[in-house]
């Protein structure tokens, strides 16, 4: 059933890719806000970012690791472009007539823009490295488990891959972004909190994942098994 990736056209692959990339870019923008859930302090992106892992599962499960790899890199470069555009926009001289919200002067509006949309190099490095490591591990684990389970027990694959991917993502991001700023105990607590929240998100979303996966497999006539796949993150061949 594994037709050559270069020759087979998929009807829904582009929309799924678009959702994945959009979720990623928006998540990085809204992550600046800290919110409180059940006593846990988390970035606002937790309401959206786990969806990228769900769609990462869907991409690998239906279309295979090689196609998921292309989407992961597409998301990376789209996010890089968004960051560059926001940074460049902040450097442009502001108009003398520019005011937003309750900010009555252009200078204060510029400060608001920088505070909300500005990125520090350390956080950017942490975000990009965590994203690549987490997403590729998530896709790799799911693809390998699909072979081991012979395509059965989708819930085992999606949850297991999320445990690994989100765990690595949280550990890398929090460590790079906040080591030396937060004490070790606080670092570990923050990592664990984000990890548990995101994994719980995946578990609760499992019925929706089943619906989307089954719909796509039927409509695309595809259920890819990565038997001969090159799993290198930097290879663009199947």
Automatic annotation (TrEMBL):
Its main location: membrane. GO terms for molecular function: transmembrane transporter activity. InterPro entries: YhhQ. GO terms for cellular component: plasma membrane. The chain crosses the membrane at residues 12-31, 37-59, 71-92, 170-192. It is found in: Cell membrane. Keywords: Cell membrane, Membrane, Transmembrane, Transmembrane helix, Transport. It is a multi-pass membrane protein. It comes from the Bacteria. Pfam families: Vut_1. Involved in the import of queuosine (Q) precursors, required for Q precursor salvage. Belongs to the vitamin uptake transporter (VUT/ECF) (TC 2.A.88) family. Q precursor transporter subfamily. This is Probable queuosine precursor transporter. It comes from Longilinea arvoryzae. The lineage of its organism: Bacteria, Bacillati, Chloroflexota, Anaerolineae, Anaerolineales.
